[in-house]
Amino acid sequence: MAHNYNSDTPHKFSRTLLKPSLLALAISSSLAGTVMAQETAKEADAEIKLERIEVTARRTVESLQEVPVAVTSIGAADIAERGIATLVEIQQFSPNTTLQQSRGTNSTLTAFIRGVGQEDPLWGYEAGVGIYIDDVYVARPQGAVLDILNVERVEVLRGPQGTLYGKNTIGGAIKYVTKEMSGDTEFAASATAGSYQQGDIKVTGQLPLLDNKLYLGVGYANLQRGGYGDFLQSALAGQDGENYNKDVEAVRLTLEYRPRDDIFVRFNYDKTEDNSNAKGGYRLVPSILTDAPVPDSVYDSYTSLPTWNSVETDGLSLTANWYINDNYTFKSVTAKRESYSKTNIDFDNTPLRIFDVPAIYDDESFTQEFQLNYQDANLKLVSGLYYYTADSCGMYDAILDVLGQTAFGTPGFTSEVGGCSNGDSIAAYSQGSYKLDDKWSVTAGLRYTKDDKDAQVFNRSYFTTVYPEDGWLPGHVRPAPATDTMPLDGKASWNKLTPKIGVEYQHSRDVMLFASFSQGFKSGTFNPRATSNEPAANPETVNSFEIGIKSDWSDRLRVNATLFKLDHKDRQYISALPDPNDLTINNQRLGNVGRSDAIGAELEMTYAASRDLQLYANVGVIDAKFKEVFHATEGDISDRFTITNTPKTTANAGFNYEMATDFGDIILNGNYSYRSKYDLVEVNNLLTQDAYGLLNLGINWFSNDGHWSIGLHGKNLTDEQYLVGNYAFIRPNPNNPNGSGYDAGTGGDNTLIGYYGAPRTVSLTVGYRF
What we know:
By secondary structure, this protein is mainly beta. Helix content is 5%, strand content 55%. It has a single domain (4-769), classed as Beta Barrel (Maltoporin, Chain A). It contains five helices and 43 strands.
């Protein structure tokens, strides 16, 4: 299923459809002219058509309406006209999709599709939704909240994509596709000013170095914004007091080489530095260890940590395409990506060091893919070999000074955990679609994957306050640990076959029905918090059944729909064993203890009401729940577990209206995005976000010469407050003697913390291009 949000042209419809014929206007005073004008209007009206959208959901370029996959594609023009700034805003336009800025940082992504994802961003854990930049897999959630720069389109593939995309796409895949160069000299720049001292600058350009052969492309962005709130109180003097601010700098360089018509080579380099502050959470219940009141604003916080945060990501990729002949195409993609993050997460959000967790994440990966595609009148076949190797390392210090003072009589206590998870993966795959006749076709695919992993985990303890490296605070020097052990040093291997089989029926030129079964898996993993030499958890598996329709009921109306059922087996959990009520962070085992299922439907519609007005809507419904969670002594405790970040209903409705005037084209747009209530805590849920909706409106002006543009965009205009993340180390107990109604968790305090989405914002963007 897919939706017509995509457009590679500056405006929704061609100029010839927007402006009446000059000849018709010149002779409209005569009867003959009137008749001709009416006929011309009828002809123009008949030519109003929804655009053909091209996607690469099946690793080759195809029409969106011909692809038997649930995919939403949002193109460059729509992204610009709606003022979409980051990847998380895409969730509004794709049903049953959640993309949120995670807790604690501004650039860590929480992604769920159809109830499948991964909450914990700790090193070593595998994703449930795959993120791709130009066919290159982004393995870690840190830095995955991508800012939009030089993008051609974003594709959201819903459901397991295990055959063509491999492991860790059991929920689906998000594809960030950048633009290929036109071959001409081009330059574009934009400046944005907005709420909360927003000040953004973006510059892109391309230059032919050798005519018709070699081209250089550049992109640069500097994105600044003040905080939505403040750190009201800090134990550290001289700290930046802004909370939920933004300080991002990004650069992209591209070289494209076309030595001859059948060969295309592309080199990409991208680098992003995010120096936004650490994100402070909102205390939903009062602290029992401090007298700091619950803040008035959900964007205000307290902290005893430094407020700085740092996320650096960069990547290199080399893509080569060889169009061998009319039937065969060969493609090679070589890539390397690295990320390094230093973060300060105050779990308790008080000015005391009750439960502070400064951490370092250090990741790098290398991928190589070879792909051979074949196509003739009846058969489309995509085959490939894939290699992936990655090192994912990290360390965090759980600073529990209150615990040290009360339990040990020392100045404090720090529990330090760190290690690495290193993995190699090789895969071979092939998927093809064969036309049996003019109506029927079948699709079949198979992927074989072999994973090898080794992991090490060390545990250290200190009877003082310790940070991950010297100089974390001015003058801080790491002492020798009181204890230092390596409880886990393990290796494991897995192999998996993931099939896909489907059938398609082309009822007419504009209506296709399809049904499919597909399977995906998430790689096995070791527990990065291990306190013993426990075995690795085995891979998770999702079996997916879909039936759907892709239909253009007329040139104006597109309706796509999908029904789906998911069976999610061998889910990996760390709180079911040995005790799901244990509120300490470092007493958790990892195992395949869960099973869940989901059933749902998705509907997307686009209607070209006139040459000027386009309407669109989508709705997703899902019923996702745990069927089994195994506990070593209590048996099935699935009633304590909930599928998080998954509203039962997601919906969106919007419009685009274009007016041609003597001083340029004006485009009005708006949408209302609705999400029903959803839970945020998997075990013994304490936080449920009530249903809410976001109202967004925009107006864009494009000059007649095509050089200038102005966009005014208002987002969340009703100023809704909605939770996107949390920390919950607390358990309800109305008889608790401290009178709070809760049993305290790690650090001895009530730790129930919420993180919120963006408030109402208004921005003005001025752009120039030639």
